[in-house]
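Quick entry between incubations.
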Amino acid sequence: MTTTATETAAMPVYPKNFLRSLRRQNVFTAFAGGIVGFLVMRVAASLFFRGEFWHGDSNRIITVAFIGWGVGFMAGIGAFNGVFRWFAGKDLDHAEAEYMAGKDLGVKRYFRYTTDHKVVGIQYLVVTMVILAIGGTLAMLIRTQLGISMELFNPNTYNSFVGTHGVAMVVGMILVVTGPIGNFIVPMMVGARDMAFPRLNALSLWLVVAALIPLVMSLFMGGIRDGWTVYQPLAIQAPPGAVGYIFFIVIFSISTAVSSVNLLVTIVRMRARGMTWSRTPIFVYSVAASVGLALPFFPFYMYSQLLALSDRTLSTSFFIPERGGSVWLYEHIFWILGHPEVYVIILPGIGACLEIMVVFLRKPLFSFRTAVVGIAGIVALAGLVWAHHMFMTGWAPLAGYPFMISTEMISIPLSLIVLVMIGTMWRGKVWTRLPMMIIYAVVFNKIIGGLTGIFLSDVPADMHFHGSMFVTAHFHYMLMGTGLFGAMAAIVFWFPKMTGRMFDERLGSIGFWTAFVGFQITFMAMFAAGNLGMPRRVFQSSELFLLSNQISTVGAYMIGVGMLIFLAALISSWKSGVIASSNPWGSQTLEWQTPTPVPLENFPVLPVVTSDPYQYGVPDPYQVERDLETQKEPVA
Amino acid sequence: MSQDLDTSPPPEPPTNRPLPPGDRLGTFLARPYVKHIAAIWVVCTLIWVPIAYWLAGNMGAGPAASKLMGALKETVFVFTLVSAPLMGFVLAVILYSWLGWGRVSGDEVPDLKNPAIKGNPIAVTIWTIVVSFLAFFLVTWGIVEYTVVNNYAAGSDNPEKLQPLEVHVTGQQWLWSFSYPEQGGISSETLFLPHNRPVVFKATSKDVIHNFWIVPMGVKIDVNPGAVTLAGVTPDTLGSFPIRCAELCGMHHAFMQTQAVVLDKADWNSWLASMGVTS
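Done. Structure below.
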């Protein structure tokens, strides 16, 4: 990030006319454009639908106003420049494209529509942190209410906290590895100069930002009172603020599709010379699997919300039973996304753990093929299990049999990945740095999440656990304990490459282990509450569950403190950490073979790959002994 | 390199025959870390026994109030114990990796001289077989137990083969109401049930989705607007049990609770009489 005088002097002279408008556009003009678009469309909709200059909120008016926000924001950031230029027959010239890629290397490029994947990665990191911070704050409020027996919030406010917490965390978790690490590291890991479609890359990021504002606004307009699943027809009762959720999901789904195509094409087409599939790092596989799942399944989420929006604004009745709609229809469309989404979240986290542990154990991956088979198995089964969320809906009791079978089958590929993890640890001295320590925590959480998942996949056991706090604790073990903690390992690990500085591991460890202990307290107590029979998403619980809820709340505060310490470590190391060398971990993947800070196009000379990136360790003495006994050539 | 190896049998004269599989297993088991991990494994597996008892014992905060709930408790108990060895093994390996095989700290990239183990077909095969077998067991248990539970719900477990009592369950924001069509359509906001007689619940909702959950009886079914869903149970314990809504249904979802009261024959008849039903 250091701009030397010579670099500035060598900057090309841009043509004045268009560049001036390009230069003026940044995140501030985007917000200005968004606000103008929102207000103009708000007034226009009021006049059109009600004949008044400013009518109060209604579904139609808010929908139109949000569309105005989205278009205004994207126009303000400059997302349409290229499109207009292309329609006009004059695409960006070289100097303009270089300006868009952030050739000037200034700080300002982080605040505008920059196509460089490294800038987008950092932007994603910050946006994800903001989303997780929103979700985390709401979690603290939720736990505070549940830990005391008096009424702290209005129940509707509480319900909207629960809903917003859910959706913010789900989206934050989807982004937290694939966004920052996927965009910053994956192109370098496969030896490319940038993503396949750099402008789409910037588009996917700014779409998320554009979508985020309506979600936050909805909190102040009645909120999402129906959980992140927004089951119909309850959601129809919610005030117009719920349109913010719909808008968020629709735009986020588009962003996901754009980003997925981009990553998939980059991974499939742009790997360095010699990087065959058997030499491609396992993290790249897991990201490909994750976005490969997101691409076909996210549209279902979008459909479900578009149909719900249509019920709200166009008087249709897809999900309104008294007018012939079906509540099961919504549940199906929602969960066809809803379960693959879990794998979209945890696969990159698990892949990152596999990639990282190799470096700290200085051993090759125990079995690369087994890991790939495990990931492929999860992808293959992910789309066939959604109805286990609907065992107790009365939709089709006999369908419990096939969905129970398919769900329990997923434990086989998942356990293959666990085998690779423990096989890689087998007989290895360990270099005890923070990312590796986090991985132990991740494997532990994965065991607990896996066991409780077995209960929930089984219809008879689910008859007790469905809809209880037990489910909440289970998916927090999977999404937070495995996904988020895995992401924290990934962030600490790739931090030196992304920021040029080492992560403060002392402070980071204190933060992480505080959060880890708090996590166990919170969710073990929540398992207990759910097992006793406490339903999910309740505002207050009976005396019976008060103790376990109080324990949970204490644990949750510990998580909060731990996460804040971790965040402080992240920010302070980013500002003033020890300057990192280009390869502080001695890793063999390509992104570490280029200088830090990373030059604009990543590699001075494109690398050629001659082996897989796991050439660690010395020949296994037992193996040598065995080979001698069987008169084979010892493996080198 | 030889001090790394602690093969207990004395070295044999060189031969070009492979070691018999039994000997290989013997040399494997004789390695010290294998013994240690085996010991930790046993401990880590045994931890799950009290957890299984605790989980099954506290399901629904007390003893089962129907045979159906007993079957659910049994399932949770068995599943925990069956998966305990596998979880215990993973736990043992990560513990041993953390503490047992040695560790190095510091900023410099260390040269750990770890063995480059790349694949072990035997381990992968054994693991896959064990996990598949476990999954097969879970699926089979699930299928059998689900059938049993469905039979219980249909009233197969009542001793005198009585006709099921039909109860209509209506959910609305935010209260439950129950009506008894065979008893002249009397209705109540507390669920009264006769002891040891099968009950069939026909549930529907007036507004949004609720979930009808009699916690200690293991009855749980979504209550949907525009559809009737079925559940059933034979209560075999006298007493009063909580009913909760287990599907977010709006503002007062948390308070959408009532009681299920199981009455013996005399009390049941006197309750019916108090409601104006002559039997």
